[in-house]
Specification:
single chain; about 425 residues; Aspartate Aminotransferase, domain 1; 2 domains; three-stranded antiparallel sheet; 12 helices; 14 strands; about 35% helix; about 15% strand; globular
Amino acid sequence: MSSGATLPDATLGAFRPIPYMGVIYVVAEAMKLGFQNGHPDWCNLGQGQPEVGAMEGAPPRFTDFRVEPRDHAYGPVNGTPELREAIARHYNRLYRVGKRSQYSAENVTVAAGGRLVLTRLFTALGSIRLGYQVPDYTAYEDMLATHLDRLSARALVTDESEGFLVSPLRLAREAEHHDLGAFLLSNPCNPTGRVLRGSALAAYVELARTRGMTLLLDEFYSHFIYEGERPAAGPVSAAAFVEDVERDPVVLVDGLTKNFRYPGWRVGWALGPRAMVDALTRAASAIDGGPSMPVQRAAVEVLAPARADQETSALRRVFARKRNLMIARLEQMGIRCPFPSEGTFYVWASLAALKPPLNEAEVFFRRALEQKVLTVPGKFFDVNPRKQRPGESPYGSWARFSFGPPEANVALGLERLEAMLSA
C-alpha cells in the first residue's frame, strides 16, 4: 500500500518495511489528529469492530473472568476440549440438524483471534495455486505476500458488473484453467457486504468436493445477515452444505470477535476435516502457544445456545436498523450504494458521482478526517501481495463505510459528512 507510512530504511536494519493494513493505517492517520478509540467527539465510520457495550435485546455483557490454578500453566495449543466441543455443538445445532455427519471437538482448533487462525492457515498450506477474490479483507495481502515463495496466488478481480462476487460458474472455470488447489474468500464479504448463500454457496461446496479444491471460508460476519431492509432469520455458513465433515475439503474460520461482539477477547477458531485441523494445530505449535485459558472458559458460556441465539438475534435487529440509516443517508448525499449490504456491518459505496476531488476516495478520506470522521478508501481492499498486479487500483472511487459504532455515533458521522459535502 503506497500510502502506508514506513520508517526510513536506515533505521530498519534487518527488518523489511511493512505498511499498515487498511483500517490500521486509517486509525494511525486519525491518531495524528487526536483520535482515540472511544473518544466522544470522533465518529469511526471506518471501524472494523461492532459496538461492544450493552445492546437492546442482547444478554448482559460479561464483566469478569474466573481464574483457576490450572490456568497458570500452558493449555492445549489447539484450545481446551470444552471449548472445542462447544464450538462443534454450536455448528451442529445451527447448520447440521438431521445430517448423518456431525462435527466434533476433533474438527476444531482454537487460537487467540481470527488473524492468528489465518496465520496458521497460510502457514499450513502446501505448494499450491491459491485463488482469492478481490476486493476482500485487507489482512490477506501481507499474509499472502509472506508465503509467495511457496504459494502461487491467483486474484479473481471483480467489479460492479459482476456485483463484486465470484459466481460459482466463474470459480469453476478459473479453478479448471488455473488448477487451483484452494480458494479463499470472506463470506459475508468484507468490504462489500455481499453474501454467498443458498444454491450459490452450495455450488461452491460442491465444486470443492468434486475437484478436491480446499475451500477456505472466512465467516467472521456470518450472523450479520439481512433480508432487504430487515434482519434475516438466522446466520449463513457453508457448514450447512458439507456432506461429510471428514471428507469435504471445507475449512471455516470464525470467532467471538464480530458475531458475539467480543473483539478484545481474541478468540478465533477453524473448523474442518480433522486431518486439516490437525495440520493447523501443528502449524500453531511453531507459531504460538495456544489461546488464554480463562478466556476460553468464558467463551464456552458465550456459546450456550439460549444466550448465543439471544445475542445474535438482537445483533441482527439493531444492525439492520443502522444499515438502513446509513444507506439512506449516503444515497441522499450522492454516494451510490449499488449493492446494499446483505451482511457484515459495512456499506461498499461509490463516490464517483461526487464533485471532484471528493470523488477520489483518498481525498474524501483526508477531508473526512478534518471533520473527525473515519472512512476507509477502497484501494486497501485491492488485495495485491507484493504489488504483482501493475497499475492503479480499480477501486479508487470506492470506499467502505462502517455502521459498527453505536447508532447515535453513526448518525453524527453521517451528519458531518453531509455538512462536508454541502460546504
